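Please fill in the sequence for the structure shown.

STRUCTURE ENCODING:
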């Protein structure tokens, strides 16, 4: 007997609220397609499956993934068997693409990570690539790289906080710190996620103490875990007195040419304790870190809404409190920083046609409505903390599959990766350099406003 992974309720018996919602969504989709069609944009139905049964493999044990695969009639196989679609953990992906394994994927196989995704998702490499991108544009004389007021400032590409990599950039950090000794900085380990190992400092002595306790002085010649230290955004936009950030999902099907899609159903993640800049609260992570993995352990955590607010409701709130024009500008600036972060890493990405990837972008808005890119996650959490959260992530996986697969629902690297509007579901096009190049002569200005697709 088959059981739902989440509720352990037999599928043939009474369903929980979430399962019932997902079941009804699947039925509505199948009825909408009609009885004469065997597939629709990656949604493989039960007609004609004998001809080509799509096989999937996953080592990510999340029901929102397996439910979407099973709904399409796909068959689960092991990683050593013949698979068409692999939803892999990042370490599994690295093993597949390593030279030692000698694995070579076929034309009908696809996987959910690019080989060197870490160029975007490791905190130190993201900063390095964005800095290199700026310098490259400066050498080319691009107006995008126009300098702003003050050293290291850019008019159009100033979307990450001032950041240094430790221990390598320790001396440069000290020089910057002494320009404003009372400033607050945030330390993050380069290779960790979910708020692990993060702390704030406002004195150089605290950093030196941490270094001593780590039993490794700041010596670039010694091998130790790297950290990034960034100027803390100490003037965040607050709602109800609490700090929040945005979690946005960005799907990439190609880096060269760049093809990127934004999921419209992103959300805000709130701290459970009101924002306080006092020294006494400097170590209180419930005040400063928005990660759900941190906040869910707080006494004030609300499991009903999970401390989350939809992007659509944030937009309505800002339009009513700040005005429509500035709200439009804010969301346009958010898409701007996403696209240019992708362009910054595109030249160094291994652009394998078997790959796609959905990244979790974390963005903080300050009280002047300026967005700051904080980090990018290669494996954004698919754990559901609320009913709405589960339905959202079900839609996310469903829409990803529809976008990355050809209309017949079978992986094929020869496909041009141009999904129809219907197949995109809740995704909207951020940028498609191939389409823009092809259509520029016929439709001048068609992609001029393509970065403002949030309505």
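FILLED IN BY: designer on duty
SEQUENCE:
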């Amino acid at each position: 007997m088959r059981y739902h992974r989440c509720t352990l309720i037999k599928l043939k018996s009474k369903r929980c609220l979430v399962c019932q919602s997902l079941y009804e969504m699947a039925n509505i989709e199948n009825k909408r397609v009609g009885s004469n069609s065997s597939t629709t944009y990656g949604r493989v139905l039960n007609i004609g499956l004998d001809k080509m049964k799509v096989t999937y493999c996953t080592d990510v044990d999340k029901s929102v993934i397996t439910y979407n695969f099973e709904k399409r009639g796909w068959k689960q196989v092991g990683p050593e068997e013949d698979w068409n679609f692999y939803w892999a953990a990042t370490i599994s992906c690295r093993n597949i693409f390593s030279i030692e394994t000698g694995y070579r994927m076929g034309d009908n196989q696809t996987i959910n990570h690019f080989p060197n995704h870490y160029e975007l998702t490791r905190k130190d490499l993201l900063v390095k690539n964005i800095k290199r991108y700026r310098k490259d544009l400066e050498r080319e004389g691009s107006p995008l790289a126009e300098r702003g007021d003050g050293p290291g400032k850019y008019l159009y590409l100033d979307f990450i906080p001032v950041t240094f990599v430790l221990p390598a950039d320790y001396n440069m950090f000290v020089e910057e710190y002494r320009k404003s000794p009372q400033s607050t900085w945030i330390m993050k380990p380069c290779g960790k996620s979910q708020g692990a190992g993060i702390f704030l400092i406002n004195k150089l002595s605290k950093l030196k103490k941490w270094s001593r306790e780590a039993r490794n002085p700041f010596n670039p010649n010694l091998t130790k875990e790297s950290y990034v230290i960034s100027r803390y955004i100490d003037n965040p936009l607050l709602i109800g007195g609490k700090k929040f950030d945005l979690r946005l999902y960005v799907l990439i099907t190609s880096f060269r040419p760049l093809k990127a899609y934004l999921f419209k159903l992103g959300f805000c993640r709130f701290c459970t304790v009101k924002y306080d800049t006092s020294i006494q609260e400097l170590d209180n992570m419930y005040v400063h870190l928005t990660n759900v993995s941190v906040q869910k352990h707080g006494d004030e955590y609300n499991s009903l809404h999970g401390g989350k607010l939809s992007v659509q409701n944030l937009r309505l709130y800002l339009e009513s409190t700040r005005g429509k024009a500035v709200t439009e500008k804010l969301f346009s600036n958010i898409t701007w920083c996403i696209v240019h972060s992708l362009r910054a890493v595109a030249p160094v990405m291994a652009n394998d046609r078997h790959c796609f990837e959905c990244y979790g972008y974390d963005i903080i808005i300050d009280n002047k409505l300026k967005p700051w890119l904080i980090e990018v996650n290669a494996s954004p959490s698919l754990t559901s903390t609320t009913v709405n959260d589960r339905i959202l992530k079900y839609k996310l996986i469903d829409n990803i599959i529809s976008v990355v697969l050809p209309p017949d629902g079978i992986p094929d690297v020869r496909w041009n990766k141009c999904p129809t509007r219907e197949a995109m579901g809740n995704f909207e096009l951020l940028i498609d350099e191939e389409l823009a190049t092809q259509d520029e002569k016929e439709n001048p200005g068609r992609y001029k406003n393509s970065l403002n697709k949030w309505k």
